[in-house]
Design goal:
The complex is a heterodimer of chains A (300) and B (115). Chain A is α/β, with parallel strands linked by helices and 300 residues long. Chain A is built from eleven helices and five strands. The chains are: A alpha/beta (300), B alpha/beta (115).
Chain lengths: 300, 115
């Protein structure tokens, strides 16, 4: 029966002062192949990381296992953080989800724990010391990996949102003095502000006299965005341009009336085509058909 | 008549501008006044109200007022604060302002002499 030694309870794995830690680490390294395979088996059972191939799972689990044991030994998470960041960058575009990553790390924790429990099964005191060393380290690892993954996911989402916003607010010069702003999708107050700023800069840059704001592609808006729309029309006027809003869905029309928007301050036309015709009228243009013969000659 | 407003205008300066413009419209028998606010990076409620007063007073003196050069950022802030320049003609810049006034005064002449 091994002598029971008192061990100071500390959240940092201690090097050298406790025989438990090096023993623990040595054991995990020794049984590496077998434990890693056990882990992969349980991953498959739990249907995690289905987006990855067998080869990839082999490679990643090997890296994670080695990293895991290193952190247990040294307590230093920097290398693990870097690895977690790198892993996340690679697997997020593949559609791997948060619960899979968290699940994967927790399964490894469980696999290693059971192995250690078996090893120290002879004495509860030993088990207790082993857990004192193992638990805090395992927790830090789980938090580092999961945290890294979530952080990277949020970064990607943010980046995608910015890209979508950029795509969806083009200000298009159509003729001299005429701009079209086609809006597609959902408008939130942030996007509405961006649209307005964009439009105003476009009016100045293109010296526009008329702007057609087409919202055919916008399913609905709320009261706040309706007010933003009115503000946009007012702001355009301050820069000497008239704004025509086209493509209002019946739902949006209802919102505007319900919100009590002052409709005398807004020019609206049913569709984009009508809006452009109205803009032409305002600017004194008239579109006429050129002679048919001219078209035929060009075709030859 | 063109009045270019300098940046950092105080309330007192605005009032003085209003009064001197109103007077000079008579002295020079102007048909139109352009107030160029390109240099202003803020237009608060007092400024807006005063510009409105300038427009009304000058109209009473038989001339038309046009405000030009409101910057996009200024326009944005104004509408967010609910400040509007209703009843005051606003255009992009001097060129547009002059064109507008020419059109307006020609029309007035036409109406006046058409009979």
């Amino acid at each position: 029966m091994p002598a029971v030694r008192k061990l100071a309870i500390n959240s940092r794995p201690q090097r050298g002062s406790s025989p438990v830690l090096p023993e623990l680490v040595a054991h995990l390294r020794e049984c590496r192949t077998q434990l890693r395979e056990e882990w992969v088996r349980r991953l498959t059972e739990a249907q995690l990381l289905t987006a990855m191939s067998q080869q990839e799972i082999f490679t990643e689990t090997t890296s994670i296992y080695d990293n895991y044991v290193d952190v247990l030994e040294t307590g230093a998470v920097e290398a693990l953080q870097a690895y977690a960041q790198n892993l996340s960058e690679r697997i997020i575009p593949r559609g791997v989800e948060t619960h899979e990553v968290v699940g994967m790390v927790l399964l490894l924790r469980d696999v290693l724990m059971r192995s250690l429990l078996k090893k120290y099964a002879s004495s509860f005191a030993l088990i207790s010391r082993m857990l004192d060393v193992y638990e805090p380290a395992a927790r830090r690892i789980a938090v580092t990996v999961a945290g890294g993954f979530v952080h990277e996911r949020e970064r990607v989402i943010h980046e995608q949102q910015e890209a979508i916003r950029g795509l969806s607010t083009p200000v298009l010069p159509v003729r001299e003095g005429l701009l079209i702003l086609p809006i597609v999708g959902v408008i939130d107050p942030h996007r509405a502000r961006q649209l307005t700023a964009h439009l105003l800069r476009g009016i100045r840059a293109n010296r526009a006299k008329v702007v057609v704001i087409d919202i055919t592609g916008v399913p609905s808006i709320d009261g706040a965005v309706a007010n933003h729309l009115v503000q946009t029309v007012d702001a355009a006027r301050l820069l000497g341009a008239t704004a025509i809003v086209t493509g209002l869905s019946p739902e949006i029309a209802q919102t505007l009336v319900t919100v009590g928007v002052d409709l005398t301050r807004m020019n609206t036309v049913c569709d984009l085509r009508g809006g452009i015709e109205e803009a032409d009228r305002m600017m004194g243009y008239r579109v006429t058909r050129i002679e048919e013969s001219a078209c035929r000659e060009k075709g030859r | 008549m063109i009045a270019s407003v300098q940046a950092a205008l105080r309330d007192a300066d605005l009032v003085q501008l209003r009064d001197s413009l109103t007077e000079q419209v008579g002295t020079y028998r102007s048909r139109g006044v352009i107030v160029d606010v390109t240099a202003l990076d803020v237009l608060d409620s007092f400024a807006c109200r005063t510009l409105g007063e300038i427009s009304s007073m000058i109209r009473l003196r038989g001339a038309e007022t046009v405000i030009v050069g409101i910057q996009p950022e200024v326009a944005f802030s104004m509408v967010q604060l609910g400040l509007r320049l209703d009843g005051v003609a606003t255009l992009l810049d001097l060129e547009e302002g002059l064109e507008y006034l020419n059109r307006r005064t020609k029309r007035v002449d036409h109406d006046r002499y058409a009979k």
